[in-house]
Amino acid sequence: MKKIILILCTPLFLFSQEKLETTRSYKNQFQWNTNLLFESNSLDKGFLNTMLYGGYITDSMKTKWINSGGDNNILYSEISNGLSYTYNFNKHSIGFRFADRNILNASFTDDLLRLGFEGNFHHQDKTLDFGGTSIRADRFQQYTFTYGTEVKAVKMSTSLSYLAGNHHLSYIIEKGSLYTAPFGTSLDIAYDMSAFVTDTASLSPLVHNGNGLALGLSTDFQYKEHDIHLSFSDLGFIMWSPESITLATDSNFNFSGIEIEDIFSFNDSLLEVNNPKDDLPSTKKSAFKSYIPATFHLSISGSGDYKHLKNYTLGVQGKWQPYSDNTPLSFAKIGQGFKESNFATLYYIQSVFNSKYCDVIPTLSHGGYSANTNLGLALSRGKKHNFTVGTYHLENVLNKKKAKAISVYFNIKLQF
Known about the structure:
The protein has one domain. It is built from six helices and 20 strands. Strands 1-2-3-5-6-8-9-13-14-15-17-18-19-20 form a 14-stranded antiparallel barrel. The protein has helices at residues 2-8, 45-53, 59-67, 110-118, 268-274, 331-340, and strands spanning 28-40, 73-89, 92-108, 126-129, 133-151, 154-180, 187-197, 210-223, 226-240, 245-255, 284-285, 288-291, 294-306, 309-320, 344-350, 353-354, 359-368, 372-381, 386-391, 405-415. The two termini are 46 Å apart. Strand 13 (294-306) and strand 14 form a beta hairpin. By secondary structure, it is mostly beta strands.
């Protein structure tokens, strides 16, 4: 478990990097992007450190983690590294971008935490509800071709990505509950679960287990004194290998315990009577489709007459990532994808302050995977050759173990 979390921890979005480049004075442009993000609406840095580096988990720590969240606990992590090249000519541009991405997106109830941390001994004559649980983990490489143009002061950009899938793991529990009778005399388990795991014969980080496509489209134009940006990116999916393991089951299971009169006559046949194999879910190998998180973005930029706010950008973002390809495309499917992304609509305001040594870029946002209010800060230096480093969660930098989000990103841009 520790290794899985370590491999799959990370980023979100860099507001100032998602728009189409407005400067075409340089023909050649190289960029390197690194994004690291851990974000949760309940579990803090102390939980992450314990899972990664080990240590004794006390009862008070368990109680704190269980009580820290709401009805639905969300955990999102992404690590991505990317290199891109863009060639600008006249009012057109073409480019290629490569990125290695690792994503973990999970949601679960407090009762699942209780079951995991405390077991069912302390919950006799109670029903623990772990329905609505989803755990999705992906690693893939993204090869993107981009084309941009300008028509009558309207800038447009399109992108087409090939996705090379490495590994995928997902557990989707629509309904799930566990009832423990007093003194543990019986257990009643009910669940409706789907699970998908790619071929585990090779755990190499670059093994090829799937192929996919993703699309992107953006436009920038001016309306009166404001610059308007509209875009969607990474709207895509991966078809995983037919050797993948899939499971879909809707079952009720009752275990009534075993009564033993003579410990010396105990044998396996007693277990077989009380645990018929027909009650256990079976797996099979088949291909399946999974979605990557798509981003929808709208922003309005302008300038102000205020002393401390000479420019500003107001924006809103949404994420779309349904659990599976279980229904045809419709308005209901679109709404399902936004709901199952675990992402609350994010609103933000951003500005740029110029100083002698660098540009200071503060961002105030509300929403996202944590659904909290966050303060971001970036420092950017250089015009022709630029280096930018920043965080989406400045308020958590000094919170240490109480921090519920950790992020850092940097961008290097070279132009010739």
